[in-house]
Amino acid sequence: MEKVSCLIIGSGPAGYTAAIYAARAGLKPLMYTGLQQGGQLMNTTDVENYPGYPKGIMGPEMMEDFKLQAERFGTDIRFGMATKVDFSGAPHKVWIDDTIEIHADVVILATGAEAKWLGLPSEKRLNGNGVSACAVCDGFFYRGQEVAIVGAGDTACEEAIYLSKLCSNVHMIVRRDQMRASKIMQERVLNTPNIKVYWNSETDEVLGDTVVDAVRIVNRVTNEKTTVPVAGFFVAIGHQPNSAVFKDFITTDEQDYIVTVPGTPKTNVAGVFACGDLQDKIYRQAVTAAGSGCMAALEAERYLSEHGHA
Fold first, then answer.
1. What is the pTM of this model?
2. Which of 7, 30, 52, 116 is the most exposed place for a label (fewest CB within 10 A)?
């Protein structure tokens, strides 16, 4: 068993930013990175919308910068995954890889969320080379070009409309004969001239050798296949927050996102804070995740001070 003041679980923009602030405050944070050190940005190529990188930066390189900055101020960064927690009382207990037991006065949860994918081999192969799960992140790269998007909820509609302002045409693939999105969002999509909706349709294959150059769509009623030339393929069928291990103690919503006190990173358990995409189903950007990581560290520092730990 190891006792620490501040434990951070997760290592994306939220976790690393929390580590930087916590370390500079003298909390001597211990971070366990999770299976994917750096989070979703490790699967991202060019990042052009994060302040401070005027020429853009590759996602993995950006996360390495975050990591080095966190280490510079003294964060103890280790590879491992939280597999069990006990937040029933102080100190908070966390088990890493089922074997390492950590006791912490405060815990910052920054395990993020994972995009849901269709499961096509070509989708995985071309991820980052035309395949994306974030129109706001990557739509800019397809200005004036044709793109496809798959999904039928509010997020898919929002992203289709966003893409329609940048791209020449947006081909929206909807599995059924109607959308799940709210009526107003459906109306906006249907009233946007350069969005074409393919009803009762599924993605048969994303085409391209090294980059996306087309998508093959199959109609579920007629079995007719249509190949549509596109430069980008966006998947907007939802995200799954990595909250399962915490759910016995931490309140989550109907989509498994951790519920925090509005405007703060506070969870229902005193001394446990959540930040980043784990509790954000609206914005899901690196810059907002980083901001919430800062908030979590500041609240952790305040909590420790108020409870005589620092």
1. 0.84
2. 52
